[in-house]
């Protein structure tokens, strides 16, 4: 009897090891192919004395003139309809830090905000002038709140949004940002070097979406000198345990600016 019990426990232990979830990291670097578009001029017509000294430009296209690195290209996990939702790594379950959207020097920082449902969004005003932050949503309550100089307001969202929601300032109409609310943490925006990293994705075959504010879905790019087509920005990719690198992804300027 004791032997059978020992054997059952051993088999259960082996089975649990066999079904243990592996996790992988996704990396990518986005480079522009072609000449960077010129940033549109902004009409600084409010609080001119303070705002005009910050040399503000439209932030739709933030591209390094020397390297071609594209900032704010977003990759996010997009499970196909009917497929299981991704498991959440324990490290994310522990993460409760606030996400900050700051009204700073008369523009929003950061320009692209990504957060999970239940995670607190703190909207700050670091400027000596008043701002308001207006954000419209499909699945959550929209808001339009005045934020005095040095003030802040907290916001939480209970439902995911299927698109990037616009944020703006009615006092300073040139200010804009985008907010993406998700159920899972598997999303990231490229930094000033064009690089992004998404950690602890469950191993397996997944569909990702590649997005940029200038064009919406990124539908075409070059990897290793070969053109790849991503219908509606959808990229199928297998995440393996450890590091997974899409490498240097070149986006033609004609693709990045197709919405213009």
Which H/E pattern describes the elements? Answer: HEHEEEHEEEEEEEEEEEEEEEEEH
Overall pLDDT level: 91
Instruction: Characterize the largest beta sheet: strand count, sense, and whether it forms a barrel.
Output: 5 strands, mixed
Number of strands: 21
Q: Helix fraction?
A: 10-25%
From the N-terminal CA to the C-terminal CA, the straight-line distance is 75 Å
Query: What is the global morphology?
Result: globular
Structural class: mainly beta
Placed side by side, the strands forming the largest sheet appear as 15-1-21-18-19
Helix count, DSSP H or I runs of 4 or more residues: 4
Task: Please tell me how large the radius of gyration is.
Answer: 22 Å
Report the sheet-strand fraction. Answer: 35-45%
Low-pLDDT regions = 5-19
